Every structure is written in C-alpha cells, then in structure tokens.
Amino acid sequence: MNDPDLVDALLQDVPELTNSQEIAALLRVETATVAKWIRAGELSGMKIGKRVTRVRKADLREFLLRADEMNLSD
Question: Which of 13, 20, 65, 67 has a Cα at 20 to 30 A from 5?
C-alpha cells in the first residue's frame, strides 16, 4: 500500500472531478492507459455524457493507495 500522506500531497491541487488527460499528466502515463484502467474497473470513472468520463478525486486517491498491489503494466 502506498503512503496516504504522499498520495494526499500529490492530489492536493487536483479538482474534485478530473478527466483522463489530467490524470495522465499527473501520473505521467498515456491517456489510453487511464482509459484502460477505467474500462478494466481498476479506476472508477463516471460517464457524464456519451463520450465524457470523469473520475472523482476520492476514487483516484483509492486507486493510488492500492496501485502497488495491482498489475498496472501497459
């Protein structure tokens, strides 16, 4: 499990609802990787429209806290 204090520091300036591009920039991965995590159910996302998905900051925090326990290879 990752350090909750470090995760909170990383997410300090992240808005309550964030998109795949913002998450990809924060984690230094491709947007396709973020989309894959959402499709696989590893990262919880919510559909806002037909082609728009947002991730709650709390869900991103939980994802990061348990990320080292998952196989997140591209």
Answer: 20
Phi-psi domain of 41 (left: phi exceeds 0; alpha: psi -120 through 50; beta: other): left
Q: How confident is the model at residue 67 (pLDDT cuts 50, 70, 90)?
A: confident
Give the phi and the psi of residue 71 in degrees, each rounded to 5: -95, 100
**Phi, psi (rounded to 5 degrees) for 69:** -90, -10
Say which residues have a Cβ less than 8 Å from residue 54's Cβ, sequence separation at least 6: 17, 18, 19, 45, 46, 48
Q: Provide the whole-model pTM.
A: 0.87
